[in-house]
Amino acid sequence: MSKSHLFIDERPLMLLPKLAAKVGLNEAIVLQQVHYWLIINEEKEQQRPLPERSHYREKRWWTYNSYPQWKEQFPWWSEHTIRRTIQSCEEQGILLSRQFEAGSYDHVKWYSLDYDWEAKSPVIPDVSKTDSGGVQNGPIYIYRDYYRD
Hints:
Elements: H1 17-23, H2 25-45, E1 56-57, E2 60-61, E3 63-64, H3 67-73, H4 79-91, E4 95-98, E5 110-113, H5 117-120
Antiparallel strand pairs: 1-2, 3-5, 4-5
């Protein structure tokens, strides 16, 4: 029996269902990936003296990626979906973004997480506890004659 190439033989992207229920599935995926990169950057740079830490600014760790670079990490999404999801995370106050070299030719967008966002924000609806299960992003097509002979 041959093994399918669609099952996990590579490092999986994991997230907690509770996070997805609070912020949305796409948002949870992006936030988890940002968290992953923040941890990687901290591990790489924490032994360096503070002035030499390129990913440590404003007393927090940051990471950066362009939208095409995010697309490489999320190949199943369009760049438009990635932009919309990042914007949603920013609007919810979870994802912080900055352009540290504003005014120069460098238009790199940096990202960090506000790990205290739950405590600061109003009650965030938990979509797992609603009757509808969330919001439908696209049209719902109902075919009434589906079972007709």
